[in-house]
Each structure stands twice: as structure tokens, then as C-alpha cells.
């Protein structure tokens, strides 16, 4: 009887102290550097993994908008020669998991 009680308490303690896992596990952006010519346009290829990946919200920002711009759909346009940085932010949530935000930064080189 005592062994059963001890096992029950250990199982209950494990359940109560379990840490929730993040809803998003990773974010990757391909290619790792966007090398573009002035006037070139590209769509950003970003992939998330985790339970919230299918519904993850992606936000795109560019550091120097004189060199390149990006819209809310991830369409990148090169405007003039230079180097800047593209940030892709993924946010996701799912019931029973920690809400997550992951940021990936990749260089944009316009020639």
C-alpha cells in the first residue's frame, strides 16, 4: 500500500512541476543571405516548426529601407546598392504550450 502511495505522489509531483513546452520550436529563413541586384524582387522563404507552426504569424522588417523594402507578405524589393538586415519574427500560441516569439536575422546585400 505504501509503495502505491509513493508512486502516485511521485507521478503527481511530476505532473505538477512539468514545464510547458514552447508553441514554436524553430524559425529558419532560406537562403541565409539574400544577394540581390538593384530592382530585383524576391519572396522570403521562412519555415517554423512546433505545434503552433501552421498558424504562426510572420512579421518582416528591414533595417535600411533605402537599400531594400519588405511588405507584410514577405515580398522583398532591392532599391539601391548596399547591405542591410532583414528580420523575420514568428509568433505562435497553442493551448497547453507557452506562447512563443522567435526572431531570425539575415543579411540583404544589394549590388
What does this entry look like structurally?
Helix content is 14%, strand content 46%. It is mostly beta strands and 111 residues long. Strands 2-9-8-5 form a 4-stranded mixed sheet, with no helix packed on it. It has a 3-stranded antiparallel sheet with strand order 3-7-6, with no helix packed on it. A two-stranded antiparallel sheet has the order 1-4. Strand 8 and strand 9 form a beta hairpin. The longest helix is centred in the N-terminal third of the chain and has 16 residues, at 2-17. The radius of gyration is 21 Å and the shape is elongated. The mean pLDDT is 90.
Order of helices and strands: HEEEEEEEEE
Which structural class fits the helix and strand makeup?
mainly beta
Give the strand order of the largest sheet, numbering strands 1, 2, ... along the chain.
2-9-8-5
Sheet of most strands:
4 strands, mixed
Amino acid at each position: 500500500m505504501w509503495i502505491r502511495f509513493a508512486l502516485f505522489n511521485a507521478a503527481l509531483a511530476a505532473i505538477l512541476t512539468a514545464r510547458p513546452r514552447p508553441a514554436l520550436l524553430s524559425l529558419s529563413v532560406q537562403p541565409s543571405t539574400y544577394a540581390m541586384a538593384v530592382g530585383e524582387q524576391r519572396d522570403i522563404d521562412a519555415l517554423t516548426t512546433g505545434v503552433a507552426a501552421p498558424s504562426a504569424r510572420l512579421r518582416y522588417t528591414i533595417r535600411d529601407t533605402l537599400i531594400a523594402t519588405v511588405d507584410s507578405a514577405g515580398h522583398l524589393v532591392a532599391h539601391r546598392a548596399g547591405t542591410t538586415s532583414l528580420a523575420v519574427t514568428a509568433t505562435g500560441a497553442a493551448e497547453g504550450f507557452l506562447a512563443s516569439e522567435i526572431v531570425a536575422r539575415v543579411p540583404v546585400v544589394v549590388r
